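Reviewer comment 2.1 asked that we show a complete input and output for one of the modelled complexes. We chose the FE2/S2 (inorganic) cluster case, as it is the one discussed in the main text.
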Amino acid sequence: MNAFLYFRPQSLDEVITLLVRYGREARLLAGGTDLLVQMRHDLIAPQVVIDLKRVAELRADVQLLDGALRIGALTVLSDLIEDARVQQYFPALVEAASVVGSVQIRNRATLSGNICNASPAADTAPALLIYDAQVNLIGPDGRRTVALRRFFLGPRKTVLQQGELVEAIDLPLPREASGAAFTRLTRRRGVDLATVNAACLARRSDGVLFAFGAVAPTPILVPVSDNRLLVTSLDAAIRRAILDEVAAHTSPISDVRASREYRLAMVKVMAKRALEVALQRLTAAEAQLSPVA
Amino acid sequence: MEKNLIPISITVNGRRVELEVQPQHTLLKVLQNQLDLIGSKECCGEGECGACTILANGRAINSCLVLAVEADGWEIVTIEGLAEDERLDPLQEAFLKAGAVQCGYCIPGMVMSAKYLLMKNPHPSEDEVRQGLAGNLCRCAGYNRIIAAVQLAASEKEAA
Ligand code: FES
Ligand code: FES
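Response of the prediction step:
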């Protein structure tokens, strides 16, 4: 690893000043599980590393706000997974975060870091997309909020401007019964990057949302307006036709993990599996909400 | 920038130490080179194999993916910190009893991951053990006995 200057600022003001001063030479350090790997392979060689873990304003927990859960910039995946409210309202996110790396990685890796890294295959991204996650940014010009579906611009590219960083991620609480699920395909069980990953959210009012990773330059959200997908007994041929249309939104490439053709085929399989579980959970959620006769 | 040394203070296996470290050195390197704690191993150096697993503030982490400067103020337990005086930790005993050690390279990391698992979940199922050790690779592929060792340690704890 190349030498660099290490800063450990105490306030957001200091972070932003450093980011503005050093620009592209600076990298932010939270959990470090992606940053250090990239530095080690000399994929990047920042002159300056800014450690965020002592910044007083940045939180490492999950807060219940009016109508949303707020995940602090420093909240690690292990703590996210174990939070009872996240489990209750956002089960697909828990499923997705649980397969990121290993125990050791999840004890260090932050949700915000996973998003800022902007890997097309990030497992948490599809789950955050179906839940309409909102990313709170802060920078030299103040604060702004960007929907996650507008946050990714390309592999390792985000809307973050010079001097900006993520302060927290908000998850709007569901307002009606819903069912959600996350699935993924890997080459081996255990710790591996996803070949394809998918999340699905089913609600009676606005139908079904799919999100996929590793099949386009960024994680993508695909809403389905055809409400027939909500019908569990839907004719298999009709469902297949709808899922074919869903898969047409993806644009996978061939790489070491899989070919383009295989990914295209697997998008449909992952979508179908996620949909099945989401519908089961929707039915279960509705049964819980309906009055006992 | 070459001799840019940063003072840190960490507690390692119950002993407080003050050090000066270079920012680009990982905690693993510093444990090995500056503190002579060579039990934790570097194998992949990128968070894949778990040979470098230690406990930091009570949590299992990969010490190859932490800068030593980040660890300022932390409480660290390495494999060297498990045995008390000459008495091995029951988990280490179980690894011996189960014949879980082949070349031994992965074992310090395996034991530390298992230690963390049993702290969080004293009676894991086989599947939970496999999940808990998913971040630890064994080049000798002695997984079954390693898993048996962890279950043995858990059951002995129950009996005790
Ligand atoms: S050496 Fe740290 S995980 Fe492999
Ligand atoms: S015993 Fe040889 S690597 Fe595990």
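The pocket of FE2/S2 (inorganic) cluster (ligand 1) is lined by residues B 42-45, 47-52, 62, 64 (CB under 6 Å). We note this here for comparison with the apo prediction described in Section 3.2.
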